[in-house]
Amino acid sequence: MALLTADDYRASLSDGRTLFYRGRKIDDVTAEPDLRVAVDHAALDYEVAHNPTHRDLAVATDPEAGDYSAYYRIPRSGDDLLARSRLIETVTGLGGTMVTLIKEIGSDALFALQRVLEGKELERARAFSRHCRDGDLAVAVAQTDVKGDRSLAPHAQADPDLYVRVVEENADGIVVRGAKCHTSISANAHEIIVLPTRAMGPEDADYAVAFAVPANAAGLSMYVSSYAAGDRNSFEFPLSSRYKMLETLTVFDDVFVPWDRVFMCRQPEKAGLLALTFVEYHRFTAVSYKLPLVDALAGSAALIAQMNGVLKAGHIRDKLTQLIIYAETVRGLTELAAQRFRVGEHDIAYPDPLTTNMAKYTFATRYHEMLEYVQDCAGGLLVTGPGGEDWDSPDVRPVLEKYYRAAGSAEDRLRVMHLVSDLTARDFGGYHAVLAVHAEGSIEAEKMQIFRAYDSTRALAYARRLAGL
Amino acid sequence: MALLTADDYRASLSDGRTLFYRGRKIDDVTAEPDLRVAVDHAALDYEVAHNPTHRDLAVATDPEAGDYSAYYRIPRSGDDLLARSRLIETVTGLGGTMVTLIKEIGSDALFALQRVLEGKELERARAFSRHCRDGDLAVAVAQTDVKGDRSLAPHAQADPDLYVRVVEENADGIVVRGAKCHTSISANAHEIIVLPTRAMGPEDADYAVAFAVPANAAGLSMYVSSYAAGDRNSFEFPLSSRYKMLETLTVFDDVFVPWDRVFMCRQPEKAGLLALTFVEYHRFTAVSYKLPLVDALAGSAALIAQMNGVLKAGHIRDKLTQLIIYAETVRGLTELAAQRFRVGEHDIAYPDPLTTNMAKYTFATRYHEMLEYVQDCAGGLLVTGPGGEDWDSPDVRPVLEKYYRAAGSAEDRLRVMHLVSDLTARDFGGYHAVLAVHAEGSIEAEKMQIFRAYDSTRALAYARRLAGL
Amino acid sequence: MALLTADDYRASLSDGRTLFYRGRKIDDVTAEPDLRVAVDHAALDYEVAHNPTHRDLAVATDPEAGDYSAYYRIPRSGDDLLARSRLIETVTGLGGTMVTLIKEIGSDALFALQRVLEGKELERARAFSRHCRDGDLAVAVAQTDVKGDRSLAPHAQADPDLYVRVVEENADGIVVRGAKCHTSISANAHEIIVLPTRAMGPEDADYAVAFAVPANAAGLSMYVSSYAAGDRNSFEFPLSSRYKMLETLTVFDDVFVPWDRVFMCRQPEKAGLLALTFVEYHRFTAVSYKLPLVDALAGSAALIAQMNGVLKAGHIRDKLTQLIIYAETVRGLTELAAQRFRVGEHDIAYPDPLTTNMAKYTFATRYHEMLEYVQDCAGGLLVTGPGGEDWDSPDVRPVLEKYYRAAGSAEDRLRVMHLVSDLTARDFGGYHAVLAVHAEGSIEAEKMQIFRAYDSTRALAYARRLAGL
Amino acid sequence: MALLTADDYRASLSDGRTLFYRGRKIDDVTAEPDLRVAVDHAALDYEVAHNPTHRDLAVATDPEAGDYSAYYRIPRSGDDLLARSRLIETVTGLGGTMVTLIKEIGSDALFALQRVLEGKELERARAFSRHCRDGDLAVAVAQTDVKGDRSLAPHAQADPDLYVRVVEENADGIVVRGAKCHTSISANAHEIIVLPTRAMGPEDADYAVAFAVPANAAGLSMYVSSYAAGDRNSFEFPLSSRYKMLETLTVFDDVFVPWDRVFMCRQPEKAGLLALTFVEYHRFTAVSYKLPLVDALAGSAALIAQMNGVLKAGHIRDKLTQLIIYAETVRGLTELAAQRFRVGEHDIAYPDPLTTNMAKYTFATRYHEMLEYVQDCAGGLLVTGPGGEDWDSPDVRPVLEKYYRAAGSAEDRLRVMHLVSDLTARDFGGYHAVLAVHAEGSIEAEKMQIFRAYDSTRALAYARRLAGL
Fold this sequence. Notes:
4-stranded mixed sheet
């Protein structure tokens, strides 16, 4: 029941899991340099619990469980949700705008399971939740199926395995087959919770399944994305050389799951609700972990504008103001979503869905416009400037020092320039940009959720009254 | 010290004030039909205090003052600000999206004066504040000078009277000359508080003046705008036939002001601060009174879409969702501005300026886009449809009833159509639209205030850390 | 075959047509003041043909027909389309941003009929086209049915008359019943062409009908919209006091149409094509007549900014630049649509649909944003200023002259202010705004047309090549 | 006077020029793998002249010069400009959305020099122009100085070398010192033309200098940017593995320039005009070379949407339509800019500046929004998918083939996905995005140019007439 250290965490990952990376089978996730960056980054979620500065935020205590990671505290109030948001923001801030996610997403799923389920399934979810909490585990969630042709339902696909499905049910448990994609942090998690990705009809019953498996389960293979692979020097890549999250194609090749880890089996009528309830938490996690990113955009734009000597230009002021409005609207709505919390099934609190989705929508739909403003403040040097090897060269550095000084020293300016480049113009930036559009549900999904979550009673009644109806 | 009734209020306005309307001198503001509509509309601020439904919100009590209008309660906390916001929203809702403003704006100015002033001027402001509260008075604020050529400072204008200025100072008081424009509700107020409109330099000392005069002061003439004049039938103009606010050109032709009503005299160094402090309250008043308007847009768009039978169309859903996001972002940020209150000089609370300005900016900059969406949901009938006389005609009505039915009856549909037309396509709508851009400060002023109010410490420090500086 | 004068036109309208306005039956459209404004405005289409300045643009000649109105010239080339565009722009410019439309829309329909029809129907259309040309007639088009519940097809409506339909067919002709709405300039036209409003299925055969009737046909009643009714003084309403277009609800109460005026009868398979072909011309007419409007926005914003003394302010420059980009993009795409003309059936040219729709879409979707910019340049005086009676009053005018001067005289400034107010903030402005969204097809219809008209071959092939497919 | 082959071109670059890349001095630009990619890409400009498909577009002929590269044809008409635009578009299309630029930018500068100069300087420019044409040379333009603190003028910088300046003038020529940045294709050009970057005052006379030097001039060092360095496999990086442009920091360390290559020396009054005239051509080059890029966005979005099976979804249609409008508005305005050509000094034609800048502004300000739409159509797989080594692995590929099939095969879909990823989410995409904002002048510069180029006469006169002035 002890809080793991970062080293404990690293050690625990050498468990025989089946991983592939860049075409090769990887024996130890901590030994492969690219993957190690991600492991070390994720380990932040363990470090904060042992860091006096963050301990109050990161560690919860209760009589039954003793000290445990605050990520696993079941929220009962707006204050709990606010504290959770601050913890996520803090650790993501330490993680260079990249969320660690190894406890965030898992606890989102655990809260959802404990709200939606009833009876014996609820008991299993509660037991599994205690298991995660007490073991201080890193927990991934595999939700998005590979989906095949998006215009067809799960059962109507050319290959029946394009959504994860139950292929066998017996006294001991179930056997599942299929694949999930975009599974974040699974390569360095202990457990993987599998949730349905959408509402389902009766014909899709086999696909209405939720369960948990350890990362080294037999038959489970994970194919780590090669996106943004490769060693990077830290002068040129101040963020991407240090902060990294891994995604996998997560393949279930007839994986056996014992009943005590099965949370839903062939209950299509509940699939949509479970998917949506998870998202209620997960979008709040999302807007919380976006806060360091929006601050980084606003802050780096102001910093580079100052170093370029353009802080007084009217159009630069205007762009900085847009960045402020953007960052602070996302922040304000996130805070408000917690303050407007509601209490759901089994006395578990959740953030106001309308406000959460508005925060996420605001973040997602203006993100690319903000990139334009940051790039505009920085200048073309973002993509035409010198790199780390230039800086390290005794022949080249003096030239750079002479010619790249502006309102600040060449070194400071180049460092900030590379920060902006990493953040907005290279693969790390592209990762953030694509996540803005797609992670935790698409923009379209957020719009639908806003339309549904909005209580139109007041506005409709008011319009009727004004019209004299 | 009693709370006036609406009739008390109406009666009190026949006080010999000098008013001009449509080229004529008006002897009694309550007897001129167009102006009477505005008086009756403003009287709502008195009615709510006697209405059991609203009394708790509208009436404050304290040992010294007894019962008094809650508008005049000096805010000490976020809850006070929230209650004030709800009162403003409620009365504006009763007023058909048009703010009454006769106590809102005056109390905004009184709070500002009591925060910014010191010494004997503070005592005068406090005494005047008690006078307004105890007399349950309607109080206008004349702030915007006519300004002449905007590229020149007050003292540099071709005519020295283009900003209100002190022309004489003697033992008893001061004499002022000049004109203010856009003075809302002055024609039906008891008192008029005059504030400087901008920061001023030493050469503008004569223009750095703040004071209060009764509406019937000698030498004071008010020229009521003819905008949206004329009698209107309520079928065709459901809002503008009933809800109206008056603006005046307010001319001070050597008006004497005794010292106990002079709050600032030739103190240019304080002019900017007073102007800005007033705006801190007044923009919060603004976003509070915009809430019924944004609800009316969202509600009437949904209602007319339903009546047209287009509620299922994807692009209509999309527009309704945009209206929801708009209305609810303004609402959310307004609520948050109160929750993030600060306590200023002399222990008077004020809403968070950054959040208030973001709410106002969001409202102002997307307003016209929202009009487009509402009009899109409604259809061309907004400007090609039948009017009240058509509806009243026994020959015409049956034709309309047959041909204008859709998913609702022709009557309901035409009523909602006229609501939308009044709200978005006629002079009442134009009034709202121009106010969105200009009232309580321009969009540019809001952007500047956001840039100034933003504390960039966190974001800059974070960017520096990420860049390794 | 002579070109009518404006007086000929006015005289010709006293023909016993059945008109209703503001609940009353109107005996003579030229005698009712509000309607007379519209008649005089429309008469511009006749005046230009007799005005030496415009005659070259306005009059066409050919051996068979002699001199005739250039509106009726069948386009054979891009130059013909450009000339047509310039004529429409010129007359609309004379008409104070309001299109006259009495020959524009009719000729749009005549071109479409002569492209789509074949056989005896084509002969009828050609004969009718000569009739309009040779008689120099004013011709309205009634296309939009009242439609009832938009989610239902014509035949599925609760009342079968909610789309115009054939109720009888006999040796002499057909009998039609139903109503069209938004019928522009019908009240002051000679002829009314009726076109189907949409694609139709076999069950809607009765509704697939196109024909022409004289404005005084038995059984035809027109209910003129009361929108923007009432006398206006020209100081306060410089545009709406002089320029006006009328719309009617156009009711066919068993109107008989002889065969030689029937262009389509129960041919649902052709209804969509005819509707769309008309729109190909009519949207080009639309973007042509929008050019004076976008110029008026850009010009009046610059003029009022200059008079306010704010022309050097960065944010004002920015808004003026946005207005320029807007106006000139619409203008440029309109010009290009003609240059990229195509030649359709029966050798009749038409403007490039993709480019035309992009011009219209650009105009429509940014219109409200432009209103915001114009209003921002002008100031709050738009809705708080003095009116015509104030200006005419010897008591009030001197006060206005003193206090409303800025970088220009008070008179010039107030005149431009009222121009902007009429154009953007009152019912005339609302009319333009709603037309921007709905006239000549909705924004959604334009988007669909762009998607369909775009030839994706080049882009798809290029993407395939880049991907190595 | 022969047209060089691609091999001639490659061979000619081994000329002893001083190049640095990634901290090392490079002896031969064609031997360094990363740089070789750029050389091969640039060689396209030579290949097209020998390719029968493109020869007509790529080769010009005249009696004096014989056959020569059409890039160097001095434009005399709109047709010449259109042909030039098509040539640039065609070669950029072959170059995978990346402009080759080795003749485009140089000829832009040569046209500008030949319009702006007079007398002996004009003769030198003409002679140099013939030299480039007859030698079929690759010509870079170094315009943007490193600039130091942007809030200070050239002469006011802490280091006088932060703008390139004349340090000595003698009988034979001048000596220059300083550095230019963002110099595109200089590393693989034969000649480098140096132009002033901005308007200058009398105190900046030393900085008002324009000249040409060969790429291997003594004292000239070029530091190639390391942006997007490194070897890439073509499955994962279909564009960036093959198409590349190099930028250098171009340092003049007391470089001698003989008088016959000096085009401007200490003529600050002409600096701004020369800078601007170059930009008149160069922005037209820019919008021409952006056309394959906007097609690639529109095409790849449609292709991946189809492969994902989401082509029928309303919101996807909407995004594809936005991409069409974007791509086609840029294309349309580019075409129109040529059609509206003007003839400038010395009978040299140039594209209409207003229209050119509107095309560029439209491209630049909506680019990031378009990236969002493309990414939205593609899905999260953009950043979570498998790479080239995965695809090459016999263990992994079958898994990918099974699970990544959708409405198309896994291979096709992954190839298009990587195309989109390269184009929008990785460093190649970031390069395009930053160029959209900064290349050929910033967005702010384009706005200023639009404001200046617009002839407001028509709109102002119209507004005055409407206002009755």
